[in-house]
Amino acid sequence: MKDTKFLEYRRLLVGAEKEARERLAHERPGINIQTHGDAIDNLIEALDREQSITTSMRASEVLRDIRAAFARMEDGTFGECVRCGEAISQKRLLALPWTPNCIRCQERIDEQRQDNDSLEAA
């Protein structure tokens, strides 16, 4: 991988890491359990709390993936799919610089998740 592309991906990862950390810091206060009034108020607070938890979980996942991408940069495997070893397209890396999978492998993972979700729902 060219040094200029590598530096661009690193810059994107640093920015994404900062954004995910800010999102986590912003959502943490919304996770506190509080009851302030009637059932409607409590329901709205519960829904807000659930949204904060979901957003925090996603930000935590992205941070984990970003750390893994930095590790792949260090060991020289950044840009290679962790499943099949093929190169991840530059277009995909620009959109999701922390992605560990090529688009083909990611589609397989997504299909497997859908199949599992369908089985669990049945």
Average pLDDT number: 89
Strand content bin: under 5%
Largest sheet: none
Radius of gyration: 19 Å
Counted by DSSP, the helix tally is: 4
CATH fourth-tier homologous superfamily: DksA, coiled-coil domain
The 3D shape can be described as flat
Helical percentage = over 70%
Order of helices and strands: HHHH
Q: What is the CATH domain class?
A: Mainly Alpha
The CATH architecture would be Up-down Bundle
* N-to-C span: 46 Å
The secondary-structure class comes to: mainly alpha
**Integer count of domains:** 1
Number of strands: 0
Outline the low-pLDDT stretches. Answer: none
The CATH topology annotation reads as Four Helix Bundle (Hemerythrin (Met), subunit A)
Describe this structure in words.
It is a single chain. The chain is mostly helical. It has one domain (3-121): Four Helix Bundle (Hemerythrin (Met), subunit A) (Up-down Bundle), CATH 1.20.120. It has four helices and no strands. The protein has helices spanning 3-27, 39-75, 90-95, 103-121. Helix 1 (3-27) packs antiparallel against helix 2 (39-75). The radius of gyration is 19 Å and the shape is flat. The model has no long low-confidence stretch (mean pLDDT 89).
